[in-house]
Amino acid sequence: MSFNIYWLLKYQVLFCVFSWNLVSGQIRYSIPEELQLGAFVGNLAADLGLDMMQLSAGSLRIVPGASKQYVDVNLDNGILFIKGKIDREYLCGPSLTCVLTLDAVVENPLTLYQVEVEVLDVNDNAPSFPKDEFRLQISELAAAGARFPLESAHDPDIGTNSVQTYQLHPNDYFILDVQMRSAVGKLPVLVLQRSLDRETESTHRLTLIAKDGGVPVRSGTAQVTIIVKDVNDNSPVFPQSVYRVSLLETAPTGTLVITLNATDLDEGSNGEIMYSLSSHSSAKVRQLFDVNSKTGDVRVKGNLDYEDSNIFEINIKAMDKNSDAMSEHCDVLVNIIDVNDNSPEVTLTSFSSTVFEDAPLGTVVALVSVADKDSGLNGQVQCQISNTLPFKLDSSLKHYYRLMIQDRLDREHTSRYDVIITCRDAGNPSLTSKKTIRVDVSDINDNAPRFTQHLYTANVRENNVIGVSIFSMTAFDPDVGQNARLNYSLLETQVQGASVASYVAIKAQSGVIFAQRPFDYEQLKNFQIQVQVQDSGVPPLASNVSVDVFILDQNDNVPVIVRPLPEYGSTATETISRLAEPGYMVAKVSATDADAGQNARLSYQIFQATHHNLFTISPETGGIWTIRHITNKDAAKQRLVIMVRDNGTPSLSATVTIILSVVGRDTEMSSNVSGLSEHPGIKPDMSLSLVVALAVISIIFLVILLILAVKVHKSRNGLGAQHWSLGSCCCFQTRNSLNGIQNASRNLQIPPNYVEVFGGDPLSQSFRYESCSTLQSTKRDFMTPNTCSSSIGKNYVRNESIGKEIMNSENYSNTVSNEVRRF
């Protein structure tokens, strides 16, 4: 206890001297070994200039090294204290200096300090000999001055605390000579002062004392027993006392180090030499080297390591085989040559595994320490990383590299980096070590959501169900997490004067658009909406896109018949002459459909008819034509039910009933004509030009009638023939004209302008046929000379279109025809 207090007081002065030894960013303390746990080393916080606030924030920490941590810092007060028992002899061995190196890291800003703690030796070990007794056999023939090396004592302490001197208790034959050896230090050697006499004293017992230079002095003793032997008076002799050899540390087991050759002048067994390692060779030497007892070859026995020890001193003993054997010693100094057999050691000291993508340039990501156990060029290390990475290595700190950001990071481009730090020494061949650091890039909201298209088109059928999905869109945000969580909404716009929200709605999470009302194609064919998508970042970012919504038509409208206009409910009436030729157009049905496309494509068909083989209808135009002649057996009233059907799915249809009155006698014709004068189909808004044309033609017709009447009156003698001629002419011209019109239209694919040119009212054509029929009946009756002309005048009443009735005179016929064509 008093010994420890003594040393503690002794080194208090050293603390004051060395605690502020700051050189090149280093702090150095000195302490004696064997201090108690928790003992004060130094105030590291005060020496670094840190206040208590920084300590409480955890800014100061000690970076543990590869070996055991003997000192640590108290984060409450910044005191550096003893954490583990320090035995300088165990820690540093025979090295003169023993320094513990540790690194202190101060955060914010990141600063590295190297702290060195020098461990001072305390004289806590006494010298000791390898064994308690040394036995020597010395021939009585040994001459005065003969030297006999003894094994040296060992003291783990260093400096003055190690072995300093040897003493030998006084005797009459031997004195002690202390030699200095490079490897073992001081070596005690017995020197014979005078010849020995075995008969006088056969055994000598000496006491050898080894003392150190500590305070107080410590010592150790050993007994030296000398046996005096007779006869063999020559000892082996080495050519030289010290040999020097260089050897690579990679020399394999069995490598020859040196071959020793000692000589002995004796003969026989006294001259045969045996080699061996001397007793004072260290245990390390015995592990690594061996000597052949017969040949003197010294060979490598174990694995050499320059970093462990770079020089060995091998003491070889040569001894003859005589019973009174004599020996001689020599030293082999082996210098170990360093070979680049240690790769650089890369240690991650400080590391931030995650950085934001907007981190400023120069941000330190990691701190890496690098060391190489080799020496010289073999221990010089350079580290580098790939040039393609947005990082760089800064080597401004000794033995340390800082991994820093040198280019802008973009998480959407690269979210993770595996930074491989490659460290290579300068040896030949060079050795390399690698350290992989994984750096994750954290996301910031720097990307607005994007739609896959600039414009979307949505199609929805009319009469849709409310709430049904009509379209779905997807936006993409390259960010992640909250920054990529999207919400969809409709921008406020107007559709036909109403808010777009009354037409459609959108689900915020999925972007699915729903109908808020049923659509009607006939009222609204298309409209446009604006959709906005916004992420949930801070601040949020958004994008807009237009969606054109097209309403698709459904077959929801029945065809509407616009011609002929029904007179009685859903029934229309028309007339037709029994003399109508096949291919004669009776009437035309026209209809419209409010739908579009195929839904509005109409086709016409005869749904019901009194005689199915009498009439046909054009499916495309709706024109009704006669197929054959009307016979007397055919009913006077023909009922046709015309169906108009669209091309939708399912198809919709409408019908109209047409009553056709078949006329064939004069009375019927007259009644029909009188009835036709008030036919509802005659339009009161006939153009003035048509009225004028009809008036002119009527006047010409009357003048011609008067001329014909006068001419007939003057030529009574030829009345019968003329009357026949006139009747024939009238009927012939009329029928030819009608047949010419009808024969041109026998094909049922009738041009659409046929009705417009020759009159859409079938009654006018029926009237012409009735007139012709009357004339033909007059042809057979020669008793009334003016029957044809009077019949023509009586039956010619009207022509609803442009066509005119053909007269019974050739000149008259030509004149009327020319007027019709001109008009």
Task: Draw up the topology in text.
Elements: H1 2-18, E1 21-23, E2 26-32, E3 40-43, H2 44-48, H3 52-56, E4 60-63, E5 71-73, E6 79-82, H4 88-92, E7 99-106, E8 111-120, E9 133-139, E10 147-149, E11 163-168, E12 174-181, E13 185-192, E14 203-212, E15 219-229, E16 242-248, E17 256-259, E18 273-277, H5 283-288, E19 289-291, E20 297-300, E21 311-320, E22 327-337, E23 345-351, E24 354-356, E25 364-371, E26 381-384, E27 391-394, E28 400-405, E29 416-425, E30 432-442, E31 450-451, E32 455-461, E33 469-472, E34 475-476, E35 486-490, E36 494-495, E37 498-499, E38 504-506, E39 512-515, E40 526-535, E41 542-552, E42 560-563, E43 571-577, E44 585-588, E45 590-592, E46 602-609, E47 615-617, E48 623-626, E49 637-646, E50 653-663, H6 666-676, H7 688-714, H8 719-743, H9 754-758, H10 762-779, H11 787-795, H12 810-822
Parallel strand pairs: 2-8, 9-15, 16-22, 24-30, 32-41, 43-50
Antiparallel strand pairs: 1-2, 3-6, 4-7, 5-6, 7-8, 10-13, 11-14, 12-13, 14-15, 17-20, 18-21, 19-20, 21-22, 23-25, 25-28, 26-29, 27-28, 29-30, 31-34, 33-39, 35-40, 36-37, 38-39, 40-41, 42-45, 44-48, 46-49, 47-48, 49-50
Helix pairs in contact: 6-10, 8-10, 10-11
